[in-house]
Amino acid sequence: MASKVYYSKRIDSETIRAVFEKALADAKRKITRGDEVAIKVHFGEKGNTRYVSPGHIRPVIEALKPLEGQVFLTDANTLYRGMRLNATDHLNIAKEHGFEALKTKIVIADGQSGEEEEEVGIPGRIFSKVKVARRIARANAIIVISHFKGHILFGFGGAIKNLGMGCGSRAGKLEMHSKIKPYVNADCISCGQFVENCTADAISMQDDEKAVIDPGRCIGCAECIAICCNEAIEIPWHGATSLEAMERCAEYALGAAKGKTCVCVNFVNHITKDCDCMPDSEVIGKDVGLVASADPVACDQASFELVFKNERNVDIFKKATHVDGTHVTRYGATIGLGEIHYTLVEL
């Protein structure tokens, strides 16, 4: 049976609550009293204004109140440098962007430096277990609120990317970016912390007293990134390929949603070329509206197809990024994350 996807051209408080409640009613597992409910959001990076605003998240919180669950807003730390690299700065940017006004607990799911994780077993083709941010892994339900927009590596980013990449611990994010391994740059001050804390014995001090990471020994735990206070660790982003990253992300999404009530809401407006981890970039498409489903694959596929139709059958994401973003939905369907076929219900 095809998954139901709820859609409205309107984006206002009443409509947001309506589409969310429709999708929530379709969830296989119902939220019960006392459940921990993680509302997975993106608090926005410095210089970005296109993230889903607190005002648009409020109707979801209000809809959850009668269920008497323990609701909290959450995101996990990033792998790249910015205002979301550690919990302290992450909470500061959330406050700066107005999320404290929602009067809902804010939790950075993988701890101060991205080190708090739990391994979740999955029937993946690449992974048998994935590293999910601890507070998300322990939640009974996850509500995934996403801004649907372009992405340089994924073509587009929506529910699957928010659920997979967004819920991985720092080590998990490193795993998802293909087979890349960190390296030490010229900013190393020879403090020796790396050597002492590397569980794989992959870091050594060279004759010039600079730290060096042996990629053959490195296990990709990302602990050195968390430890370094001098920003001396670099990620060779060019080592990631789009198809590999999308497949790994879909498997992480499978782990993040495992055993949980899962509902996805995509805001398909302010469609930019780049993701919300960057300062505002150019708008590449016209606003479409609001899409919600208990199926992350169907939610993203419907969002993409609505944009495609709205742009007169032009894939604006592929045109902007040269990446076919629908690979992630097709792969997600093959591993049981959701269904690529859906029934669209317009409200």
SSE order and pairing:
Elements: E1 3-8, H1 13-26, E2 36-40, H2 54-64, E3 70-75, H3 87-96, E4 105-108, E5 117-121, E6 129-133, H4 134-137, E7 141-147, E8 149-151, E9 155-157, H5 159-164, H6 170-176, E10 183-184, H7 193-197, E11 203-205, E12 211-213, H8 223-227, E13 233-234, H9 242-257, E14 261-268, E15 271-272, E16 283-285, E17 289-293, H10 296-310, H11 316-321, H12 327-334, E18 342-346
Helix pairs in contact: 1-2, 9-12, 10-12
Based on Cα principal axes, name the global outline.
globular
Approximately how much beta-strand content do the residues carry? 15-25%
The CATH top-level class label of the largest domain: Alpha Beta
CATH architecture of the largest domain: 3-Layer(aba) Sandwich
The topology string of helices and strands comes to EHEHEHEEEHEEEHHEHEEHEHEEEEHHHE
What's the story with the biggest beta sheet? 8 strands, mixed
Neighbour order of strands in the largest sheet: 4-3-2-7-14-17-1-18
What is the number of E strands?
Answer: 18
> Under CATH, the topology of the largest domain is which?
Rossmann fold
Low-confidence stretches: none
The CATH homologous superfamily of the largest domain is named LarA, N-terminal domain
What structural class is derived from the secondary structure elements?
Answer: alpha/beta
Tell me the Rg in angstroms. 20 Å
Provide mean pLDDT, rounded: 92
